[in-house]
Hints:
The protein has 198 residues and is of the alpha/beta class. The protein is built from 10 helices and 6 strands; from the N terminus they run αααβαβαβααβαβαβα. The chain has helices at 7-19, 27-40, 45-48, 53-64, 74-79, 94-103, 107-119, 131-137, 157-167, 181-192, and strands at 49-50, 69-71, 87-88, 124-127, 146-149, 171-174. The chain has a 6-stranded mixed β-sheet, sandwiched between helices. Strand 2, helix 5 and strand 3 (87-88) form a beta-alpha-beta unit. It starts with 6 loop residues before the first helix and ends in a 6-residue tail after the last helix.
Amino acid sequence: MSRVVHPIEAESYRILRERVDLSHLPPLTRTVTERVVHASADLAYVDDLVCDEAALESGLTALRGGAPVVTDVAMVAAGITRAGLELVCPIAEPAAAELGRSAGITRSAAAVRIALRRVGPGAVWVVGCAPTALAELLTVDAAPALVVGLPVGFVGAAESKAALRASGLPGVSNVGEKGGSAVAAAALNALLYVEEKS
């Protein structure tokens, strides 16, 4: 069943494509870039977003195969608009706070450890809020299918995204401090909206 596009969304995309030509980008990179720009109304993402087509293909294959999706915060999970996904987000669980205190790490980092025990390798990870979650993900052996690393903030956000790019893991990131839950969810939604060819 194909997704019904609301007229406002269609008009937004028409305006976006009138302002910037992304036809030179590979298909999935273009799809993700357009969705992020659409969600943020920020054309600077055209030059700031860092996508790798092979990583996006890996993520898309994993999603189509039923891979779980781990989010750093509930706000990212709330922005993911496809039903039927296995969404894992243990940040609000008491165990995350307890582990954070006992290990001397943030609750976000602790939630990464908890989530990894639940999902194992091959999950799709979406970080839109907590740089410490992305930093922690890079220290554990998660073997992700894709990491959408778009945390926001003045402390650690740009650095954690640079570390993701340097890690060699399949990822989507951006160069600066901006990002956020809506942007991270939009990047994932872009892949979820790709129609399978028959």
